[in-house]
Amino acid sequence: MNMTIRGATLAAGLLLAAACAGDGVTGARPKAGQGMLAVKLTDAPVPFDSIREVNVFVVRIDARRAHTDSAEVDDSLEVEHHEAEGEHDGEHADSTRWVTIATPNQAFNLLALQNGVTAFLGASPVDTGHFKAVRLVIDPAQSNIVLKDGTVLSATSTPPVEFERRGRHGLFVELKDTLDVDE
Fold first, then answer.
1. Distance CA 49, CA 105 (A)
2. What is the dihedral of CA 18, 20, 24, 30, to 10 degrees?
3. Alpha helices (H) in 3-159, listed in sequence order
């Protein structure tokens, strides 16, 4: 049995919400010309009887104002990650740059996030404007699947869980509409 996880088959969704006021949960307050962007994670039901958990380690969630597609979702992933580590102010006028919204750095069991159940991933002040693309950055080395019998399958187990790519990578989250952030 060889399991492959692809961004499209994860069936996980991000719920993005633009709020008008500061977020009491994070303590972050937007500056003039900024609004708050919050992220939650949920999952669609999975038809696997033998799976107890699907744990995906979410490193961070990024958004950008320029349109993108799944082929561009890993562009500049590491470069922008290092820049984002020291800068979380959401101020990026360049529409081609990814803006980090949340950095949960933890695993989430997608099967526990069904039927309206969500996990709050974080919120961040960002410049007002229209966001057209979002990516969920995961770490396959810290992700796994737990079978009902307790067997843990990971990238290094036998049999392994094979992710689309090795190392951290972004999963493209297709937005139906532009995400508008107001002051």
1. 28
2. 90
3. 77-85
